[in-house]
Specification:
18% strand, Spore Coat Polysaccharide Biosynthesis Protein SpsA, Chain A, 10-stranded mixed beta sheet
């Protein structure tokens, strides 16, 4: 006879992550408790992801693996993983990061009947998790709670951080009754689900970092310009339940008009004439805006990178991740000189 339904489902949507998912699963299985299940939805990977998952899952009934015949995109896949889950709450876990010791117990202790959403803080590490870049992504020192009418304050406080899906733990029944399909293709379905209307219960923000993020490993890095200049602001500014002032604190409606943002992306190697011609030129902006955007796209990449490095070095700790990005750009002088 089947036992009681789990309290927490750790839901992972994965695609071609054989190199990383083993470390993620090793960490999760070390913290596995009777009240927890792990649900993995594989979006028809072509590498060894399935083999790695099955090796780790051998003899572990609480690890449930599902493989799709087609890749439907990350938003669809996380939605489907939640549908396949059986827990009262779902932790939307990334497939390449790891949990800190005691993270699962800490989360389980926070799951109360009056709560709809838990947001966990994280620390940020480099690509191989060997060096900490930022010990606390959200600069909060104590837990915070938000009522059902606090969507604006929640968005202001969490801002860009909630683009990281691995920080989200949500009541499954609330997820399933909300609109999800409208956010397929946004890459941030969880943000759409949370902020489309007031939540029916309390939100808890856990100040203690419980996740160690493998920074710079997102599968959509090649689409960075499109995502941060158009998709993300388009999603935020579509939220009718959020005030314009709260949205503006997260991002402007058209960040591609801002010189500083274009320069930062040029320095990272994410903006060039190709992006200008595809995304900015057709938008009918003023001559001045188009001229400025084109001029940035024409700045030699190594020069833009050197300027950005100088700026981030002088800005200090608050620009640590930007400095890491600049050093890992193909335009960083050491990388540029090594290029064939």
């Amino acid at each position: 006879m089947a036992g009681p339904a789990p309290t927490l489902s750790i839901c992972i949507a994965t695609f071609n992550r054989a190199k990383y998912i083993g470390q993620t699963l090793e960490c999760l299985l070390a913290q596995l408790l009777p009240a927890v299940e792990i649900v993995i939805l594989d979006s028809s990977t072509s590498d060894e992801t399935e083999r790695v998952v099955r090796v780790f899952g051998e003899g572990v009934s609480q690890l449930r693996y599902f493989r799709q015949a087609e890749n439907h995109g990350v938003d669809h896949d996380f939605d489907r993983a939640v549908q396949l889950a059986t827990g009262e709450f779902c932790w939307l876990m990334s497939d390449d990061d790891i949990l800190r010791d005691g993270a699962v117990r800490r989360v389980l202790a926070s799951l109360r009947p009056e709560r709809t959403l838990i947001i966990v803080n994280a620390e940020v590490a480099d690509h191989d998790l060997s060096r900490t870049l930022e010990p606390r992504r959200l600069q909060v020192q104590a837990d915070r709670t938000y009522g059902t009418s606090d969507l604006d304050r929640l968005l202001r406080d969490t801002g860009q951080y909630i683009t990281f899906i691995g920080c989200i733990i949500i009541r499954r029944s609330v997820w399933l009754v909300r609109d999800r399909r409208s956010y397929y293709g946004s890459l941030f379905i969880h943000v759409g689900v949370i902020f489309q209307s007031p939540l029916p219960g309390e939100t808890l923000l856990l100040a203690e970092p419980l996740v160690r993020i493998r920074y710079g490993n997102a599968t959509w890095r090649a689409r960075e310009f499109e995502i941060w200049m158009f998709k993300w602001p388009g999603l935020i500014w579509s939220m009718s339940a959020i005030s314009a002032s709260a949205k503006a604190q997260v991002c402007p409606p058209e960040p591609w008009r801002e010189l500083k943002k274009l320069l930062a992306l040029r320095a990272k190697g994410a903006y060039s004439l190709r992006e200008y011609r595809r995304w900015i030129e057709p938008r009918g902006a003023s001559f001045e805006v188009r001229l400025r955007a084109r001029a940035v796209a024409l700045i030699p990449g190594p020069l833009a990178n050197a300027i950005a490095l100088l700026y981030y070095w002088t800005a200090g700790r608050r620009s640590r991740l930007s400095l890491y990005d600049a050093r890992n750009s193909r335009y960083y002088f050491r990388n540029w000189l090594r290029a064939p």
